[in-house]
Design goal:
Elements: H1 7-12, E1 18-21, H2 27-42, E2 49-54, E3 56-60, E4 66-70, H3 75-91, E5 93-94, E6 100-105, E7 113-120, E8 127-129, E9 134-135, E10 137-140, E11 143-146, H4 149-158, H5 180-189, E12 217-219, E13 226-228, H6 230-236, H7 239-245, E14 251-255, E15 267-271, H8 275-286, E16 292-293, E17 303-304, H9 308-320, E18 330-334, E19 339-342, H10 353-358, H11 368-376
Helix pairs in contact: 2-3, 8-9
Length: 382
Amino acid sequence: MDNSIDLNELSKRESESVEWKENGDDPDVAKSIVKTISAFTNDLANTGGGYVVCGAKEIKDEYGFPKVVYQGLSANKLAEIEGRVIAMCRDYVSPSIMPKVVPVDNPYHPATKILVFLIHATREAHTFRDGEKNCHYVRANRQTIEARNGLLRELLEKKNVIIPFDQEIHEDTTIADIDLPFYRDQISAMGQYSSDMQPEDFLSDTDQIAAFIPPLMGRLSLDQVLRPKNFTLLMFGKRKSIARYFTNAHTVLSVYPGKDRGESFAERHELAGPIIQQALDAMKILNLQCSTIYDKNSDTSNQKKYSERAIQEAVVNAIVHRDYRIHRPNRITVFSDRIEIESVGALHWGVDQDMFIRGNSGPKWRNQAFACVFNKLSLSQA
């Protein structure tokens, strides 16, 4: 982030990374500024940090568009706000924060200045504590909000405070929960057989199938028993073990003859077991929907109704990047004019919803180990 401050440039930025404050001498306002500062350091939105601008406020112009008005701050006000906010960043935030403070000339009122707090993202998860409660703040939908439930977990995973779900050791399972014949078939498909390494050799807490795939097993400190990680169990586990430990980690595929669910009959498939097999079974059924359409009135024949590659990519993404902590199956529904594929959970925290809708969002992994295994099996793109 550039330390030079251009107010005109800031006014053009997405408000995801800029917060405008008319003042900041009131303790409650100062507290809200510090909450926003801690949210920028936590940087769940991947903006690299942000700016809190005091002495300016955002309003709507006569056409309803955002407009910034610069009232400015006197020298005394500026010093008071700076001192109060810096003290709160030290006393109310853990680990404490020291934002860069930049006074900027007010282009509309030379006797006043605009106070800008420049905040860089850090590698730590910062907690705001004011004596009433301790909580983490993040930026979401251009607002500073308290991170709770799944949002809090995503923040802590990002900051490496807790282990990501897919790489957690499943404490209730052992190697006996792995479907060894299925596991050997998948290791063979990855090309991992060699004279030096047999499939069973990878069922360890040290050896890796590939560079970006973590060891399949781990040991808990209490008993040191070798146990599968969550991604190992979901990828290669026995059908009954997956059903027992991951309720609803399956896919429901329904085929309706018409354009809605009002039909009296529907073909229904419950795809269970290892998620690799779920993806293969789903694609096998859906490929029947990619039938060739012959149009006697057209010069072009042998047109595919759906692209098999597109169907495969959509199915794999839905299965790999779903949130497996939510006890609800993925759903794939086929109608006469479309296929709907639901992946359980919200958008990844690193994906901007507006950019996603416009088709401009870059790829993000929710379950990196899942994605790497599917890539090695040539079931998904890199």
